[in-house]
Amino acid sequence: MRTRPWAIALGTLALVAGALALRVRQVARRSLTADPSSAAHVVGSREAAEIAYDGALGDGWEDWGWGPHEMPKTGPAKVKFAGYGGIVLHHAELRRGFGAFSFRYKSPATWPDYLGVALQGTGSPTPQVTVQARHVAPLADGWREVSINWSELNPENRPFDRVAITARSSVPAEWVLLDKILFTKSSGTSAGQAPVRDVDLSVTCDGASHAISPLIYGGSGADKESGVTGERFGGNPMTRMNWEPGDLWNTGNDWFFENIKLNGTIWDWLAAAIEPGSQNALVVPLIGWVAKDGTSVGFARDKFPKQKKFDPNRPEAGDGHRPDGSDIPPGPPTNTSVAATPEVIGRWIRTLRDKDRARGNRAVQEYILDNEPSLWNSTHRDVHPDPITYDELLDRTIRYATEIRNADPEAVIAGPAEWGWRGYLMSGKDQAASFGLQPDRSAHDDLPLVAWYLKKLAEHERTTGARLLDVLDLHFYPAADGLYGQGARVDQEGAELRVRSTRALWDPNYRDESWIKDTVRLIPRMKEWVSENYPGRKLSIGEWSFGADEHISGGVATAEALGRFGEQGLDSAFYWGGPKKGTATFWAFRAFRNFDGAGGHFLDVSLPTRESEQLSLFASSDDSRSHLVLIAVNRDSTYAAHTRIRLGGCGTPISNRTFTYAAGFSALKVGTLDANGGSGPELTIQPFSFVVIDLQLRPR
Length: 700
Hints:
It is a single chain. By secondary structure, the chain is of the alpha+beta class. The protein folds into three domains: 18-184, Galactose-binding lectin (Jelly Rolls), CATH 2.60.120; 196-208 and 607-698, Immunoglobulin-like, CATH 2.60.40; 213-254 and 261-288 and 336-594, TIM Barrel, CATH 3.20.20.80. 20% of the residues lie in helices and 28% in strands. The strands form eight sheets. It has an eight-stranded parallel β-sheet with strand order 15-28-27-26-25-24-19-16. Strands 1, 3, 4, 6, 9, 10 and 12 form a seven-stranded antiparallel β-sheet that branches. Helix 13 links the parallel strand 27 (538-544) and strand 28. Helix 6 crosses helix 10 (449-464). It is globular and about 85 Å long. The model is unreliable at 1-45 and 188-192 (pLDDT under 50).
């Protein structure tokens, strides 16, 4: 599990009347000196509707300050954007849509693109828009005009009372001139209506197909109404879960290395998770140490009085760092923990199976070999300060998995549950080495860790006849800064990057836009590693999330990932930390698992599709091909997509339903499509949205 500027509220504006309306008309239909073909040439063709500043503050507008600035009685405002400064202009709440927001500025031509624009109010947070070249048109005498379409600046038409023009990068402390800060009228379409592209999509019912595993829709701490098909009991604390009492674990570096006594026991959790049709996966400790009580801490104040931080609610617990941030060497593991040998783990699993037999059902279908072992020297360094090596990982896998197999011969065993890109390719020892050095990998035929791990377990099975691994299990989170974790980015740039980053799951042409700077193509890569080193292993992404669960970009990314899991033939996956009820990610799961609230779901056979660059199409059918469920995901944040989906070899639709989720929705919106002579469903799909198309067919 990974624990990975300000948010602003958007809204709609009201046209003003009287004297202000007269003033608006006086600045209407301005002509620009820029090339009329310029993509940013918007204001000249639209009438101004609200003026915030034009040689002076507009009626009803106030200077709410911020960075150093001057507002003369007449003429352009002057602002210094150094130190990420800016200016905020305030008005009583405005509640009506516009066509665009525009302003003119004059700064040194050598400065990079540095401006951002945001609206602010009392509503929920919305993104800041980065001013890019596509928004800017050059004018005379060094001036430039910025125009940002309303559908981009305020896609949900929320009320607002402030506009902020800010610096998003460092610039010198020189005056910048600002003027003509205004909002234009809508060009005749409804406020916030998106431009539309025509897109060709198709489904082939008589083409190559494959089964979709229902286990790709698993979660962790999920709301059951999302339709999840399995529950993963995992995360860093499970590495130190003591099953003997069942209610003790250690938080590791997630929270001051504290032993915790839990409410309820692991036995209670597992019993409560038993549901028909649902499968549970359980992280099993391999690290060798588990919590001995509910009170001890890894770096106690009385042993290490000088630490950078202490838990404010438990002052004896420190973070294990000196005041300068360097690591404090830990004491012996016995300060917090008791040994958990393979034999101990085997005894616990026999206890679990005894409980299963007594109640007549199985609580755990899959055992996962611990959690992100190449990070133990960070997450659990109080008991495992040295980074794990190739050989230690293999040794622990063999010893512990042997006991698991002996205790539960029917067990499905998954591993190595590594955290991400560097964890796939190298050991903890390599990751701790100086940049560019891989001493452990070099000593193991320069093979990626996962490939070597599979190869050695295959050799072990050939030698001993013992199969110790059934599932290759890896974790995936987007690696670009700010996409996952608290404060996840939801500005337009961040939202678009979040959705693009889903391509790392499958696309051989996508170069990850993070420090990775490589083609991850995780699922095809996993297939290759298995095929080349240990054929027959299934594939699981045991933790995954693209962050921003509440935001439409998180929902779109989740829908895209779920569709790819089925299309790419993944065997199982578990969404980390949810999905939680009512979030955009919750409705993405519902689109696949229970779109109509009555069990309607993406079907069991994946069909081939043709999709477009920004519009994904996932197709499923029943065995008879008389029922199709399609899910289209519009990954474009600006353009709607108009399409007629051609149905090749599918028969004629005789009934249809649609279920749509877009920005501002609180649930899937139900609809139907007009009949169009059997040529396939025709619809317009809004930006950053997903739609379920449920079709009953008359056979050909």
